[in-house]
Structure formats: C-alpha cells, structure tokens
Write a structure and sequence with these properties.
The strands form five sheets. Strands 1, 12, 13, 14, 17, 18 and 19 form a seven-stranded mixed sheet that branches. The chain has a four-stranded mixed sheet with strand order 2-11-10-9, covered by helices on one side. Strands 5-6-8-7 form a four-stranded antiparallel sheet, covered by helices on one side. By secondary structure, it is of the alpha+beta class. Helix 14 packs antiparallel against helix 15 (about 475-495). It has helices at about 45-55, 105-115, 125, 155-160, 225-235, 245-255, 280-290, 290-300, 305-310, 340-350, 380-395, 405-415, 435-440, 460-475, 475-495, and strands at about 5-15, 25-30, 60-65, 70, 75-80, 85-90, 135-140, 145-150, 180-185, 190-195, 215-220, 240, 260-270, 315, 355, 360, 370-375, 400-405, 420-425. It has a domain at about 265-495: Dipeptide-binding Protein, domain 3, CATH 3.10.105.10.
Amino acid sequence: MLRSLKHLAVFVLFFIAPATRAQSGGVLHFCLHGEPKTFNPILVDDEASENIRYLTGGVLIRLNRQTQALEPALATSWRLSKDGRKIALHLRKGLYFSDGTPFTSEDVAYTMKQLMDPQNHSATGDAFRSGEGAVDVQTPSAQSAVITFPARVAGLEQLLDQVAILSAHSPKKEMAVLGPFYVADYKAGSYVELKRNSNYWKRDHRGRPLPYLDGLHLDIQRNRDIELLRFRRGELQLINRLDSESYVRLQKEDAAVARNAGAGLDSDHLWFNQVTNAPLAEYKKAWFRSAQFRRAISAAINRDDLCRIVFAGFAKPAYGPVSPANRFWFNSALPAPKFDPQAALALLTQAGFRFANGELHDSSGHRIEFTVVTNSGNAVREKIVTMIQQDLAHVGIKMNVVTLDFPSLIERMTRTFDYEACLLGLVNTDLDPNGQMTVWLSSGENHQWNPSQKTPATAWEAEIDTLMREQATALTDKKRKEKFDRVQQIIYEQQPFI
C-alpha cells in the first residue's frame, strides 16, 4: 500500500487440479509468514490472521477478486437504500456452523454488534464508522436482517466481504465458522491445521460439495529461504508470494511453476515515530515531526536502485499511498518520486539543519543519527535498510539498523513506542479506501506514525480525517475519488510514510 516500493506480486503454483477434473481429498501444505495474533475474525489486523479469516470465515456478500463483481454468499439477495444507510439481506436457509449450530439472522445481529463495539477496537469495524451514533440491526425473521447505519457507508456491499459472521449461540464462539475450513489444531510457533467444514454450503457447477481438499496444513515459517527449500523438495505445494531472487531462480529451473501476477497492492515503507509520549529525546521528536525533514529523507533515497538491486526489477517506485494497480483509486496526478540528494540537503538547510564535513547537525548541534527497526528473517527488508543507510550517509545522516523478532517489533510499535523509525509493510486486501480507515484516521490503531489519537495532532491529519469521512458518505464514486485524491496529495506532501 503506502509510499515506498510497490511490489510486483509473484505467485507460485505447484499443482492445482482444474474444476472439471477435481478429485476430493488430500491436504495442501503451505506457509504463514508470521504467527496469527487472533482467530477472532472481528479482531484481525495482521496478514497471518487475515489468511485464516479468508479460509474459514463465511461472509454475507463475496467480492470476486478476479472480476471485482459482487456475488451472493450467506445472503442470497440484498437491497441497498438510496441514501446508502440501510441494507436489507435475505439469508440462506438451512445452513449450519462448523460445530452444527444453526445459522440465523441473530448471528448477523451479534456479529455487527461485536464489529462496531468500540471496546473491541476492530480494524475491520473502522471502515463502517461513517458518522456518530449506533448501528441498528433488525431481524424480522430467521432468514432476514436489516442493518441501518447512522450515516451513509460508501461501498457498503463490498465492505461486507471483509466481515466473517460469528455465531451468537455456539459454545465454541469464534471457532465455529461458516467458511470452507475450520481451525482443527494450532501449535504456537509451529503450525495451524485447518480441516474441511462438512457443513459448508457451497457446491461446484456439477453439484459436488466444496471444498475438494480434506484440509490445509499451514506451517508458521518466517524464513523465506527455508520455505523455498521445502517447496523445491515437494514438502509444500504452494507459495503465495516470492521475493524476486527466488522467482528468477525458479523460473530458470521450471518456468511452469512460477507466475508473475503483475503489480500488487502492498509495499514496504519507512516511517518515523511521532507519538507524543514516546520515550525519545525531545530534539529527535522535533526532527521526526518536521515535514521538511521527512521530505528530505524521501528525496535522499534512491528508489530506482532499490527496485533494480533488491527486487531485480520486479518493483516500482511509488507515487503515493495507493498502488497504480488499484486503477480507479490511484491518483495519477501525483509527481513521480525523484532521487535528488541536493534537493534533500536544500530542504534540510531550510529546516535549520547544517551540513559540514560530511555530517548533518540540527540547530542545537546534535548529530543527526537515528535507528531503524525492522523484522528479522526478512532478507528483502534487510537489504532495503542497508541501501537506505548508504543513501542517507551521503547527506550526512548516520542511520543504524536493528532487526527484531516480530512479536518484539509489534510490542514496540503498538505498546511501548520505544523506537525511532521503522521499516515494514501493510497488507492491503481491499481496493476501496474505506478498507484503509484504520490507517488514515488519526484515531486508527494502524495510523502507525502516531496511532489512536484522541484528537488529531496536526492540521493535515485533521483534514485527512474530514476527507476520509466525507468520501465514505459521498453519493457518487466521482465525489469519493475527488476526496481520496486529496488524501493522497496530503500524504505525498507530508510524507508520514516514506
């Protein structure tokens, strides 16, 4: 997603039987690249948990990822009111959760209550918060539900694709699911075992029950080199994302197993800690809060070199916070990012910094030095920070690098705020900007540079808050895009993510 390098999504398929020759049975093996933080679909905000939600969760309306068309799922039909505040859903009859608990409209009402409860801090729920007031759910019958929001929710039907329905009555709580698989076993740090949900409602065009597979074995493996080695040995049948070096290697070995799927929606990006109560020196906080300082850092980074060396050409410098692959929402008017160390030094000079004898100092004489943290075991990010370190040295900045295991990194990012800068990526599963509310709203938990603000810390963040809420209630996509284009322009100017 955000401003840095837009990755080209590369997928590997070892063997998938076509639908016309599908045979039931078997277990597919592949890897999660991190520990799932939760199995509660309402609380998902990490990639591993998102993968499990997608495989286990049943949703009311499904967004077809290939055609971008909406398809009936747990709801056979629906009707959206003209003002975009109310949606009436007709539900499938005779469905059961994985543990045998019947599915009714009560489950829809319960799920929406949990989703919108502010105490749950649901990142998914943030996308539905378009106005003040409570969400009302009426259940006229077991097979019908009417959801009314306090204000228009743009893209409401698409957003429901992200909401896995919980059971209101199952003793297994969130472990009772309506999707094709359910979590049968989990060993922390080792694996997640999913088994076929025999109560899953969907069938193929010949009337055969889905899924065909008996289960999925998801090994928790952060090391991509080990993952690739196991794939080449035949221990894994699928890798859903490859780094460029591995992709090139596999292409040489067997071109049939690796597919370049083109530009993706995700990216890696750098940000500085702007949290007010972070345990950092005040003079460093002043640097990080300076838009000129952040723009200078951006100008000093050679993205073309990163794309060429780290990604072997399978990446593109980003223009702003949205990937060009997101054709409708991408703001094509943003200027291309330029590598310009002299412009970086000019910005720093304007901001009161002094460059002399190969070193940069602030107006109080402090040497410009900071530490970037990133997750250990990720060879791509380790290469990126090393190259950025070299780029910044040319403008007199001393940048240190520390790699941390992912739980420790998350602890610093979300609880202690004991870090200066971070290089990481955000997984973007939704084309619609409403799916990014938790990132752009100043109150959002994924507003990484300064999360969960009670009131916006800056005027430009306040403007983004207003624009994001306005686009969420605008009556036309044209108006929504105008608002979101302005959001992208502000992010480009302020550089909270680089």
